[in-house]
């Protein structure tokens, strides 16, 4: 009746209804896919934030290890210099004792 009151023949009316149903189905699918995409993006964002924090932690540990290594190398060089001085002093003492 609605089709007749609007002067739409039944074949065209059925086509319009089918098209409308397809459009609604497409909209529903689009909505579902959009929601799923938003969920995945939220999850990705959370994972990226966690990895960023982990990277910052690892970077801080790496920097600390580099500082400790530099300090160790300074101590090692100081020890080496001191040993060379002791060896030189020992050599002088041995020469003096040989006299």
Automatic annotation (TrEMBL):
A biological process term (GO) from this entry: regulation of attachment of spindle microtubules to kinetochore
Location of region: Disordered: 1-24
UniProt keywords, alphabetically: Coiled coil
GO cellular component: centriolar satellite; kinetochore; microtubule plus-end; mitotic spindle
Chain segments annotated as coiled-coil in the UniProt record: 34-68
InterPro entries: SKAP
Protein name per Swiss-Prot or TrEMBL: Uncharacterized protein
Native source organism of the sequence: Sphenodon punctatus
UniProt xrefs under PANTHER family: SMALL KINETOCHORE-ASSOCIATED PROTEIN
Keyword Lipoprotein on entry: no
Superkingdom as given in the UniProt entry: Eukaryota
